User: Which sequence fits this backbone?
């Protein structure tokens, strides 16, 4: 044998070998599905003899019943229309009844006149990928269940804690009034009672925030709609917060006489309280916090600006997600539950408003809230 012939023979054998023992199943069928060529991999998977398949069996005959229906209603029309199908998940059924999930790819060959003559089909074993997908889904289900359980627990705990706390707060305030009236307590005792009252109020706020989360989750956070002048509300709020600070100054710039929005005064107060308290909490006491109120077209925009720790860029997109805290907030040991901004965003959106943030780590932050101005109320 000539060297050239030998090389050609070897090449033919190895191509044949490649085809027969490929890591995927190969089939050639005529357009109605009748099998005309099949490789060994497919025979091993399905446990069929080659001649059995080639003596009149169709691809549809080696599919499960749902697979057959899917092939006829999905793959055949697609092959007819676009000439190929890709990555179709379908189940093979072997001669011994064993089911093998595969991904099917098929190409339609036509003759010179455009009439379909053959379908060339490649099948990939999908067992590993399916097992991986099942595991992924199970993990996601478990994570969702854990989140649901956490939310249920927090909502239940908040409800249960509210009643004893209300009683505690009521009684401590009663005690304070009586002590003031009767003037019979030492300064030290009065101070202790004040601490109990302050901490109870703090606890009450945390519980109210948790209840807000649960109200949002169940679609029960409702707002009143009355005219509220932000140019009155915000300065009053700043005065109240300022009174609790020792040396720190909150600066305010308001360029408007009034900025009336339709909304819920208490909820709007909660929005600005939160943003101002965050600005104070996440910045050094030597740096200023500035609030700017201005009109932007048909909207009033309120900016709360600080020169504090800022927000890492990777955290910006998750900032308004419940229970989320950026890594630098946790590293700095500032306490918090990560629900303030989540509730703020919800309240702002219930007012048809928008909240945005501009920040970079160690570069300070500016939170901007804007609401439509209630034009029909402005004379
Ligand atoms: P909390 O302050 O209780 O953690 P928030 O929902 O109010 O929860 O805020 C969520 C997170 O957003 C904070 O944990 C912090 O990482 C970040 N953040 C909010 N405001 C600021 C700010 N002014 N400066 C820097 N980071 C902030």
Assistant:
């Amino acid at each position: 044998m000539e060297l050239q012939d030998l090389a050609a023979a070897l090449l033919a054998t190895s191509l044949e070998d490649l085809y027969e023992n490929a890591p995927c199943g190969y089939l050639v069928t005529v357009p109605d599905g009748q099998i005309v060529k099949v490789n060994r991999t497919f025979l091993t998977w399905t446990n069929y003899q080659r001649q059995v398949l080639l003596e009149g069996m169709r691809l549809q005959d080696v599919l499960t019943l749902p697979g057959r229906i899917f092939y006829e209603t999905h793959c055949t029309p697609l092959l007819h229309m676009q000439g190929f199908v890709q990555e179709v998940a379908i189940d093979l059924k072997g001669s011994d009844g064993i089911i093998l999930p595969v991904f099917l790819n098929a190409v339609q060959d036509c003759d010179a006149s455009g009439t379909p003559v053959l379908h060339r089909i490649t099948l990939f074993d999908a067992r590993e990928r399916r097992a991986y997908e099942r595991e992924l889904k199970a993990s996601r289900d478990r994570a969702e269940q854990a989140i649901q359980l956490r939310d249920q627990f927090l909502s239940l705990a908040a409800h249960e804690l509210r009643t004893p706390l209300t009683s505690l707060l009521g009684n401590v305030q009663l005690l304070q009034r009586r002590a003031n009236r009767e003037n019979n307590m030492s300064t030290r005792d009065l101070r202790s009672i004040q601490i109990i009252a302050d901490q109870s109020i703090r606890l009450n706020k945390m519980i109210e925030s948790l209840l807000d989360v649960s109200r949002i989750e169940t679609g029960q956070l409702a707002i009143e709609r009355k005219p509220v002048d932000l140019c009155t509300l915000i300065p009053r709020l700043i005065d109240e917060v300022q009174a609790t600070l020792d040396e720190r100054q909150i600066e305010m710039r308001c360029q408007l006489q009034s900025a009336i929005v339709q909304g819920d005064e208490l909820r709007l107060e909660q929005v600005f309280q939160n943003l101002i308290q965050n600005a104070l909490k996440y910045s050094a006491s030597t740096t200023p916090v500035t609030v700017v109120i201005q009109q932007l077209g048909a909207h009033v925009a309120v900016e709360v600006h600080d020169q504090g720790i800022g927000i890492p860029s990777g955290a910006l997109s998750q900032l308004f997600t419940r229970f989320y805290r950026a890594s630098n907030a946790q590293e700095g040991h500032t306490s918090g539950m990560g629900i303030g901004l989540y509730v703020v965003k919800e309240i702002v959106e219930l007012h048809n408003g928008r909240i945005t943030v501009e920040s970079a780590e160690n570069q300070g932050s500016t939170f901007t809230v804007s609401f439509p101005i209630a034009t029909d109320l402005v004379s």
Summary: The two ends are 106 Å apart (CA to CA). The pocket of adenosine-5'-diphosphate is lined by residues 274, 278-279, 282, 306, 308-311, 319, 325-326, 329, 336-342, 365 (CB under 6 Å).
